[in-house]
């Protein structure tokens, strides 16, 4: 299994003999962002209510900041790819309004 930082997309190394344990104050050794955050959790889903698949989870306002969620489970899988759709949409919108001047 491979684990990746939600911010810099670098692989995180854990001692898998004792299981993956991410503490609230653990940070990515590559970019320094917090690791115990919603965006690194396997339950995080921005498309659903409360952005979490755990119905008992408390609301967390800042999904990319360290939190005390008891349901946190570091997601594993393939290296994430950067989503360029938001940047593309902003560029198209800026271009549209530029032409109106």
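Sequence proposed for the structure above (101 residues):
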């Amino acid at each position: 299994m491979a684990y990746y930082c939600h911010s810099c997309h670098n692989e995180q190394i854990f001692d898998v003999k004792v299981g993956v344990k991410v503490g609230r104050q653990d940070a990515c050794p590559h970019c320094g962002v917090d690791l115990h955050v919603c965006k690194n959790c396997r339950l995080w889903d921005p498309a659903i209510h409360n952005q979490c698949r755990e119905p008992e989870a408390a609301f967390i306002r800042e999904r990319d900041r360290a939190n005390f969620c008891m349901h946190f489970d570091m997601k594993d899988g393939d290296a994430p790819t950067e989503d360029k759709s938001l940047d593309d949409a902003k560029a198209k919108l800026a271009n549209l309004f530029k032409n109106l001047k």
